[in-house]
Amino acid sequence: MNPRSLLLNAYVYAVLAFILLPIFIILPMAFSETTYLTFPPQGVTLRWFEEFFGDSRWMAATWFSAKIAALTAITTAVVGTMATYALVRGARTMGTIFQAFLIGPIVVPHIALAVALYLFFQNTGLSGTVFGYVAAHSIIAMPFTVFTVAAALSSVDPALEDAAMSCGANRFNAFRLITLPIILPNVISGGLFAFIISFDEPVIAFFLAGIRDKTLPRMMFDDIEQNLTPIIPAIAVLLTVLSIVVLLAAALLKYLADRNSTAREET
Amino acid sequence: MKAGFFEANGRQMSRGAILLLMAPFFALVIFAFLYPLGSLLSLSVLEPSPTLTNYERVFDNPIYATVLYRTLRMALLVSLLSLALSLPVAILMANSRGPKAVFLTACVLLPFWSSVLVRTAAWSILLQRNGLVNEFLQGIGITSEPLRLLYTQGAVVIAMTHVLMPFMVLPIYGALRNIPFDYNRAAAICGAGPLRSFWEVTLPLAMPGILGGFILVFLTALGYFITPSLLGSPQEMMIATLISQQIRENLDWPFAAALVGVLTLLVTIITLVFSKVFRFERMLGARA
């Protein structure tokens, strides 16, 4: 290895250490016996996990978040796939408007959206409701789902659908029986990403939460702001496991989709 | 990939069918984005009567002008730091193959998908009075007393850089990956050394990715809420924390709406100016 690339490698690994260090510091603290957070952690205990799973407030927040995230995933997958399909099969001028409205909510800072929704939902009694959260989270997760679906849809050969329609299938059946099975892995991945984005969303939750009905990120925010107990590292462990599972699932889906398309090309 | 992302292909559908398929999306956008944001912004110019006083307060009051200036400065600092850290990582990622490439990508993606709150909490633990950073600084003799690191602008800049950096790495990596190897080979044949070939061939071609990542981080940093409110000092607020304070403590909706208006206008202008370099599908697709 020449000196220049040695230098590049050294610099990059230092940066990676910076990226990973905080995560590797906080995870072991979940097993610490002390009630305050210190590194290296003292002893080994599962006490904080027991506290988390035993506390009805944390459990309620977790289920509340999971419910919102699941509904957000379904909403973005269905609504996003419908719109993307319309776009790929004909919308011309609508396409520009669609893209602007798709990107808008993620370019506009989350704080602006959160405050606007806080005002609107307060006046309409939607604050703290599942419906309100799902609408808000679907807006910010939509681009991630749409681009994941669009990536698959733009590589599906339209001749397949045309062939089905020539054989007598209507548009809906051609989509349902031909196109949907091909893009399904990406639709599911898109939904999974939306799930994680919703489950992890702190800013909108900060404003929309009532006294009851707090999401998990909102509970975490309060804990970090007030006393930062080892419950946070315990949740960090659980969230990291969840992220890894979702990423692996998405990778598996991508692998299956790639294998499908190779198989199609070979036949 | 052939054609563009949203390029129309296949047998076209009727206008009615397209409208029907898109209706739920537009309904959602109107319900949870356009209408709420519109009515908030209308507060800023209509309350108490049609007026611009709410905006005048943002710029005339030195306290608020300082917050605005500090927000811009810190966002710029975070973007520059992110660029300095991201560019070499992206270069190495683009030049790696096999397990090393997978390892590097995983290192960048793992924090991307881990909770912002968890990462902010980690920095709060690292930077606390008896935290690792203070122990380290005392260990190597830079300071004898533990320093006050938490609740400073430095803490916010470091933690925000940590959180936002992956948004910079991925677009740059995407741009670098699209440069054919032949170009550098051609430059080498013409007698350019590796540095000159990087400077005159690779860098200009990667510029859209670099600029896109830079703007994305800058825009996100401008309106960032979580990290500044948990790690920053209340005396040195950024604009998002100020907005939250105006609503939750002062209940001053028209003024908060004007602050949101300034922030939204700034972000929209920057986005429109740089809309050519924004390849959102690449940035967001890269997250997958």
Concise account of the structure shown:
Chain A: It is found in: Cell inner membrane; Cell membrane. The complex is a heterodimer of chains A (267) and B (288). Helices cover 79% and strands 0% of the residues of chain A.
Account of the 3D structure:
The complex is a heterodimer of chains A (267) and B (288). Chain A is mainly alpha-helical and 267 residues long. Chain A has a single domain (64-266), classed as MetI-like fold (Orthogonal Bundle), CATH 1.10.3720. Chain A has helices at 3-26, 47-54, 56-88, 93-107, 110-124, 130-153, 158-166, 171-199, 203-208, 216-226, 231-266. Chain A is globular. The two termini of chain A are 45 Å apart. The mean pLDDT of chain A is 88. With 288 residues, chain B is mainly α. Chain B has one domain (42-287): Orthogonal Bundle (MetI-like fold). Chain B contains 13 helices and no strands. In chain B, helix 3 runs antiparallel to helix 9 and helix 4 (98-112) packs across helix 7. The longest helix of chain B has 34 residues, at 62-95. Chain B is globular, with a radius of gyration of 23 Å. Classes of the chains: A mainly alpha (267), B mainly alpha (288). The interface between A and B is large, with 102 and 95 residues.
Beta-strand percent range of chain A: under 5%
Percent of residues in helices of chain B comes to: over 70%
Structural category of chain A is mainly alpha
Strand composition percent of chain B: under 5%
What general form of chain A does the structure show?
globular
CATH-defined topology of chain A: MetI-like fold
CATH fold-level topology of chain B:
MetI-like fold
Arithmetic mean pLDDT of chain A: 88
CATH class of chain A: Mainly Alpha
Provide keyphrases for this structure:
heterodimer; A: 267 residues; mainly alpha; MetI-like fold; 11 helices; B: 288 residues
Helix/strand layout:
The complex is a heterodimer of chains A (267) and B (288).
Chain A: H1 3-26, H2 47-54, H3 56-88, H4 93-107, H5 110-124, H6 130-153, H7 158-166, H8 171-199, H9 203-208, H10 216-226, H11 231-266
Helix pairs in contact in A: 3-6, 3-8, 4-6, 6-8, 7-8, 8-11
Chain B: H1 15-46, H2 53-60, H3 62-95, H4 98-112, H5 116-126, H6 132-139, H7 153-177, H8 181-189, H9 194-222, H10 226-231, H11 239-248, H12 253-273, H13 280-287
Helix pairs in contact in B: 1-12, 2-3, 2-12, 3-4, 3-7, 3-9, 4-7, 5-7, 7-9, 7-13, 8-9, 11-12
Keywords (chain A): Cell inner membrane, Cell membrane, Membrane, Transmembrane, Transmembrane helix, Transport
Protein name (chain A): ABC transporter permease
Main location (chain A): membrane
